[in-house]
Amino acid sequence: MILYEKLFEKTGVKNIPLGFDLKFSFPATKPKGSVHLRVLRGKREGRDALIWETHVQSVGDEVPEDKIRIRSWIDNAHTLTDDWFFKMIEGDLLRRFE
Prior knowledge:
Blueprint: E1 21-29, E2 32-44, E3 47-57, H1 67-89, H2 92-96
Antiparallel strand pairs: 1-2, 2-3
């Protein structure tokens, strides 16, 4: 990854990233809250790997309070993250697992 070189001039910081962690957050309506997409560098079986994670979060008044609404929230969150997952892997990556 190449960053703006002037950031590192006369700072004692090397332009060699030790890690990578990028997160996007978007408002969601079903379920009400936010959906987060995170891409980061990690390890899998001792080898470098690119990891992505999606999760849904509701806080405050957006949090369901009874069993029926909690179940609905879980179903909606799963539907959303499932949809994003398959959209992100469509094409060659999905075909590798078919």
